[in-house]
Amino acid sequence: MGHLITVFFILLFVFSYIQDRRKVTNGFLLTLALLSIGGSLAYEGVKNPGSFYTYIFFPLFILLILFIGLSGILFIIFSFFNTRKIYKKEGVSLKNSLILALGVGIILLNIATLFNLDQYLQREFRFIFSFARFSIFYFSFFLFMFTVSALLYQVYFPKLNKDYIIVLGSGLIGGDKVPPLLQSRIKKGVSFYQKQLDKNGKKAKIIFTGGQGHDEFLAEGEAMANFARSLGLEDEQIIIEDQAKNTYENMRFSAEKMDAQEPKRAVFVTNNYHLLRAGIYAKKANLDADGIGARTAFYFIPNAFIREFIAFMNLYRKSHIIIILSTFIFSLLLTFFYNYLN
Questions:
Q1: How far is Cα 106 from Cα 130, in angstroms, rounded to an integer?
Q2: CB 128: neighbour CB atoms within 10 A?
Q3: 157 in helix, strand or coil?
Q4: How far apart are CA 241 and CA 208, in angstroms?
Q5: DSSP of 83-139, one letter per residue?
Q6: Distance of alpha carbon 181 from alpha carbon 90, whole angstroms
Q7: Following DSSP, what letter does each residue of 164-182 receive, concatenated?
């Protein structure tokens, strides 16, 4: 029976992944499948001591326990070292401090738990700690699910048959210069174009998408096209989209630039930490395209990924607000009735 459950979860994940690679629930289903596989290995290992399964399960189990036990401490240490490096490379700012804030939050949570701080509150207000724990668990669950799904989404080997390559824009330096982060996207897009051309002789159109910010002298799409020309890309293969102000508009306006009389096999290019959310926006814009990620300096990824997660949660903010607010009201009413009856 246990093995049937494992097979069920594996098939459920495979079906969901094939149906839509961009679904965040894929990360949750993959986790369930892996846990089920672990459970099956454990069952076989206990049922057949000294067997092949025993030698697989117990080392994996020990490694998992060690990872869980040390993950909090390792993350705190990592958050301080990573923040020090990004401050040195990118400067001190709120957006560069998110991973540090998460590390400090874990420290404060452990202090509150260790010293049982809720005992210092009046009984009527102690529910606040329970509500805080629920909120932490709630957001941690979605962060985990988003992280696994984002890693899973990066496993993509696109066919070399694309008609369009969409390169997503970001801000310019000094109002007209393409920064290294954006350069990596352009280089990735041109590299894919050249790889496809060399493989089967098919020329794709590259859409450079991004509007002009209030502090920019020209549209990001235009600046990106200029940089691509310096890499040897021909004008005939360039399409400029110069109105988009966000990722959703990048996708929607790029789709409008595609020739309605031609096929629309497309792929989009962005930095690897941004892939999943960009894919979600592509779906919202009715654009049938998956993404390939440009490499990003490792020190930059943690803070950027936390921003991506915040933006992802913001996509469904109404649902999250309703759940969190309902939980708070329920906790408040439960506390009120408990105190009233006692």
A1: 16
A2: 15
A3: coil
A4: 6
A5: HHHHHHHH-S-STTSHHHHHHHHHHHHHHHHHTTGGGGS-GGGTHHHHHHHHHHHHH
A6: 12
A7: EEEEE--PPBTTTBPPHHH
What is the spatial distance between Cα 149 and Cα 146, in angstroms, rounded to a whole number? Answer: 5
Q: Is 62 left (phi over 0), alpha (psi -120 to 50) or beta?
A: alpha
Pairing of strands 205-209, 164-168: parallel
pLDDT values of the chain reduced to their tens digit, one per residue, 342 residues: 667 888 999 999 999 999 999 999 999 999 999 888 888 877 777 777 777 767 777 777 788 788 877 888 889 999 999 999 999 988 888 889 999 999 998 888 888 878 777 777 677 677 788 888 889 889 989 999 999 999 999 999 999 999 999 999 988 988 889 999 999 999 999 999 999 999 999 999 999 999 998 888 999 999 999 999 999 999 999 999 999 999 999 999 999 999 776 778 999 999 999 999 999 999 999 998 999 999 898 999 999 999 999 999 999 999 999 999 999 998 888 877 776 666
Domains in the chain, please, with CATH?
Answer: 116-153+300-342 (no CATH), 164-296 (3.40.50.620)
Q: Could you give the C-alpha distances from 262 to 164, 192, 209, 265, in angstroms and in order?
A: 10, 20, 20, 9
Nearest to 272 by CA among 288, 248, 292: 292
Q: Which position has the token pair 């936390």?
A: 306
Using an 8 Å Cβ cutoff, are 263 and 163 in contact? yes
How many angstroms separate the CA atoms of 110 and 193, rounded? 50
DSSP line for 21-48 = TT-THHHHHHHHHHHHHHHHHHHHHHHS
Asked whether the beta carbons of 253 and 244 are under 8 A apart, the reply is yes
